[in-house]
Amino acid sequence: MFLLLLLQPFSTSPDSIIGFVDLLYYGGCFLPHTSLLRFGIVKMLKVREHQVAGHMAKNDVLGPLVDDSGKFYTPLQEHDRGSAELSFYTSLAVPPSICPFFLAFHGTAVVPASDGSGPHTHLLL
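Predicted structure:
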């Protein structure tokens, strides 16, 4: 089964962002961008209230978001840092016996950035 979700933001506010997510679901896994089929789904994205580490979404700094199902959207950094992080998640092979102890990588999503700067690619964890 293929399912692609395509971003089309239609509402943003400081507390939440609603839009469509660009993501492919195939064979039980979410994969990065592709264009096989196009379906839409509405997601409510919010800035996390509590965060232990990483870039926090405040003072016009691009930061992570979380959707209503608990998936984490972390902004893909520019240049080599972002491509290295994406490469890490796409090539990571975790043995099934320890899989529950690792973040699940669900591909990438282009969603409105937390700093209000417009659509930005995020890793979906």
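Summary: Residues 2-49+57-124 form one domain.
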